Amino acid sequence: IFDPDGYPGNKLAPWDSARGTFYKSWWGSEWGPTMRSLTLTPEPVVFDDPASLDVVAAANVTVDGKLDEAEWANAPTLLFGPGAYLKRTGKEKTVTGDVDVKGTFVVNGVTYHLPNIDSSLARVKFLRKGMNLYIGFQSDDKSVGTFGDSWEGDGLFMKIKYANGATKEFKLYYNLTGAVNGDTTIHYEANDPTFGAGASVKGTNTKVNDTTQVDNGYTAELVIHLDSLGYIPNAAAIPVLVNIFDPDGYPGNKLAPWDSARGTYYKSWWGSEWGPTMRSLNITPLPPAYDNPDTIFAKDAVASIVVDGNLNEADWTTANTLVFGPSNAPKNPGEKTVTGNVDVKASFVVNGVTYLLPYKDTSFTRVKFLHKGMNLYIGIQSSDKSVGSFGDSWEGDGMFMKMKYASGAMNEFKSFYRDSAGVSYEATVLKHAKAAGKLGASSKVNDTTQVDNGYSMETVIYLDSLGYNKYTKSVQALVNIFDPDGFTRTLAPWDSARGTYFKSWWGSEWGPAMKTIAFSPVTGVGANAIGGVPTVYSLAQNYPNPFNPTTNIQFGVPENSFVELKIYDILGREVATLASGNYVAGFYTLPFNGSSLSSSVYFYRMTSRSIVNNQAQFISTKKFLLVK
């Protein structure tokens, strides 16, 4: 930088310090060779243009245009609109391209080419549940409207590939269809309308095709039934392209199209505007809503269990556990969720008002199983926030179960809170079991003026009174946990404004599907055991062999295991099952009678799985010969 002060031509002597100066300063060196560097930082990326986007699994989505389900908040997001790359937040991605369609145009002989100064943005998100693909979008559009009297307007326009490769359109936009007092409703359009549906909610200040005010946008939801498009549940990816249109200030013929002084016309897209380039929606596998184990093993208790409702014996801390409650009930390692659940409120009417509110209760219940001698113990620990009953005389919070007796008859056992008197125990035959409960320190039955902190229960079932003996390896049962919150005598049942009614079950609610509670028999060997405890799994050769028509097959298990022993013919077809159940550690001999079979070579195969975690332990196959 040079600074020669007071040197006008030859009027002043150079470097006359009394009247002027000559100063210079530099960065690097005055004329070289030392230099410095200008670092060029990258310009912001206008379009992220992700090649694919993951579709997040949702517990439940109602296509009402509200986007009020919690999953929408965390769904991956595409950002559409002018200058979107400057307004991204978090993990949001901008799309492939955009265009201001106004361009250069003439109105009344005047040529316009004004920049698009609209600040509207649209966020587009994706969820799935089962075979339904949900697309939700949230726009802060300042002027919601259409192109004209009968053309399309603000909204989402997309193409999606069917499983057979055909490309079809789905659209959800505002136009004049359904106009009421100058306003409009969203319009859903597809090649086959039954393959999807759409809905929207306008912002509180939004009036379609009204340019006299500033709108505050809209939200909308589109569902596409993927099975209608030929996809199967394990489809990995769906090809799509998505457009968001924003034609502002175009109410019928009142404004000339592309009148930039009063309106704009902007569109942006992901993929390409109308093809052929597409992007991919990655369909992540749905986590199982319920573990739904077929069998739970009731461990042998070391100490005695006192049925007082406290669950304070040490054995309960390691007991195998089922978790009942909504599908998002928290699980600890090793715990399993149950078959299903239902919010019984559904849609109902109270005093002429129809209610359909989502289930928001966070209560869940842990059900544990222990075994000692001929007693089966079932322990319950619930975090229920409102312990109560259905009404004056009906049932309430607790366990409702059915169990098969040795005879095959199925009977009920119930332990529940009806009122402040304590746990009500009911059974088909009372002497076959008993129960006790313990309320949490702040819990009060049928009191909705406070938040309770749950309860615990213990039930003992006397297996010998049900016809079982010490060699019994398992019983069949189904278990329900009911949670009728806030249903006191002064509240109408299913009043969702003040209470909920939720139930979850293992097996089926009241039948016929049942599950297995397995345990070790009292003795170390079964009725057909031959004594001793092996150190490894084994399957011996049958004796005699060849045989006609009977033979014996011996196997050994070194620990409590679920064992299957099956007979197959030479073509691999199953012809008999000798064993399918839980066996304690020991050697066993099973007889086989082949009188119904013809002379041939046959095979017998043993498989063994852990009773605790269902992991495979041992597989072995041997050949034997039936000669008649």
Give the overall average pLDDT. 84
Question: How many helical elements?
Answer: 1
Shape: elongated
For the biggest sheet, the summary is: 14 strands, mixed
> How much β-strand is present in the residues?
35-45%
- The chain-level structural class is mainly beta
Radius of gyration, in Å, reads 37 Å
Description:
By secondary structure, the protein is mainly beta. It has one helix and 42 strands. Strands 3, 4, 5, 6, 9, 10, 11, 12, 13, 14, 15, 16, 17 and 18 form a 14-stranded mixed sheet that branches. Strands 19, 23, 28, 29, 30, 33, 34 and 35 form an eight-stranded mixed sheet that branches. Strands 20, 21, 22, 26, 27, 31 and 32 form a seven-stranded mixed sheet that branches. The longest helix has 5 residues, at 70-74. The relative contact order is 0.08. Residues 522-527 have low confidence and may be disordered.
Features:
about 625 residues; 14-stranded mixed β-sheet; about 0% helix; 1 helix; eight-stranded mixed β-sheet; mainly beta; single chain; elongated
In a few lines, what is going on in this structure?
The chain is built from 1 helix and 42 strands. By secondary structure, the chain is mainly β. The strands form 8 sheets. Strands 3, 4, 5, 6, 9, 10, 11, 12, 13, 14, 15, 16, 17 and 18 form a 14-stranded mixed β-sheet that branches. Strands 19, 23, 28, 29, 30, 33, 34 and 35 form an 8-stranded mixed β-sheet that branches. Strands 20, 21, 22, 26, 27, 31 and 32 form a 7-stranded mixed β-sheet that branches.
